[in-house]
Design a protein that fits this description.
The chain is α+β, with helices and mostly antiparallel strands and 358 residues long. 20% of the residues lie in helices and 28% in strands. It is built from 6 helices and 17 strands. The protein has a 9-stranded antiparallel beta sheet, with no helix packed on it. The chain has an 8-stranded antiparallel beta sheet with strand order 12-11-10-14-15-16-17-13. A hairpin with a 6-residue loop joins strand 8 and strand 9. It is elongated. About 4% of the residues have low confidence.
Length: 358
């Protein structure tokens, strides 16, 4: 090899080494810039947030603040679950990443961090946060969940290994810096029913409850003051009402586990083909009438009315605007039989059955 060729070869090798060293240092400095002491959206003014969009390849959900309430647009502006919104914004602005994840944009697919597009695999759940309805406060991509390898799980059969995620890969748009968060954000999905407010009515100082369920079931319990015990109206039912059943019934009214909510005018025409009625009167002068229906195709519906009102209630729109589709088990909870509501007879300690147990 000639001397000139050797010099050229050495120069090329030196350039390659210098270039490689520069690329490595640039990559290191890039990851060194990721501060683990900063939150995903640490600079977000939570009080200024007015709209949130959640997008997957096949669904989109919008939750916006208007008419003095947070509302779910896909449910005809039904009130949203403000507690769930509070948790989301709090986690985004207070929880710090567990660690940075070394990945180039070409590798985002394996982390499930690609932008959501229809038919695209490994798409992320995209969360868009808006301030003053139009200004973007931040875009966050939620990728695959992270499962920590626990050596103890190797001792378990495959079917018994717990599938509980330890975190989730997350990317704040515009940073090109994926991180692993110590929370899963499992609830960040475009499911309108999940984001709806399921609180219903909270009857206080109940004085009477009556239920009519066709074709034959009808009963009423009442008391004169909230301090007294309930009794059945009429002389047909000898045993007193079961306090646990009464408490269970009134408690069931606090949360409404509907599967769908719609405007009353959009309720099916045959939604109340078979109708049951539950009436509740309270000591504060407010009463409620719940119309509970069963359609011919075995679906169950509910609508509620104010029987009489004292001062204006913040929940008034629930009783004038909305109708609900409810699961069968909730239908059964709201329409108990008189036999179910009765106090079970006390056991005689000297009965043959009890003596045999001794």
């Amino acid at each position: 090899m000639k001397k000139s060729q050797l010099i050229i070869l050495l120069i090329v090798c030196a350039l390659l080494v210098i270039t490689g060293f520069w690329l490595i240092q640039r990559d290191k400095s890039h990851w060194r810039d990721i501060k683990m002491d900063s939150c995903l959206l640490g600079n977000l003014d939570v009080d200024a947030v007015t709209k949130i969009l959640i997008t997957t390849p096949d669904k989109k959900l919008e939750i916006a603040y208007k008419y003095s309430h947070w509302r779910v647009e896909q449910l005809n502006a039904y009130p949203a679950n403000t507690e769930l919104l509070r948790i989301l914004l709090e986690q985004l602005t207070t929880i710090k990443p567990a660690r940075a994840v070394r990945a180039t944009p070409e590798q985002y697919g394996r982390l499930g961090l690609e932008m959501p597009e229809k038919g695209k695999k490994n798409s992320a759940v995209m969360l868009e946060i808006y301030v003053d309805h139009n200004n973007t406060g931040g875009i966050v991509l939620f990728g695959k969940e992270y499962f920590l390898k626990n050596p103890e799980n190797n001792k378990l059969p495959p079917g018994l290994v717990p599938e509980v995620a330890d975190g989730r890969y997350v990317l704040v748009d515009g940073t090109n810096r994926p991180v692993l968060m110590p929370v899963t954000f499992k609830y960040v999905v475009p499911d309108p029913v999940q984001w709806a407010d399921h609180s219903f009515i909270n009857p206080k100082d109940v004085l009477s409850i009556s239920m009519t369920r066709l074709p034959k079931e009808a009963w009423e319990i009442f008391r004169k003051t909230p301090r007294e015990k309930f009794g059945f109206a009429g002389a047909k039912l000898r045993m007193p009402p079961n306090p646990k059943q009464v408490a269970s019934l009134t408690s069931a009214l606090k949360q409404l586990p509907f599967t769908h909510v719609m405007l009353r005018k959009d309720l099916p025409a045959d939604a109340f083909k078979k109708e049951s009625t539950l009436s509740v009167s309270c000591g504060n002068g407010i009463g409620y009438i719940l119309h509970i229906g069963e359609s011919p195709d075995k679906k169950f519906y509910l609508k509620a009315d104010l029987q009489k009102a004292g001062k204006k209630s913040e929940k008034a729109e629930f009783f004038t605007r909305w109708g609900y589709e409810i699961p069968k088990n909730y239908f059964n909870t709201l329409t108990p039989t008189a036999k179910t509501m009765q106090q079970p007879p006390a056991k005689n300690p000297f009965s043959p059955q009890m003596l045999m147990r001794r």
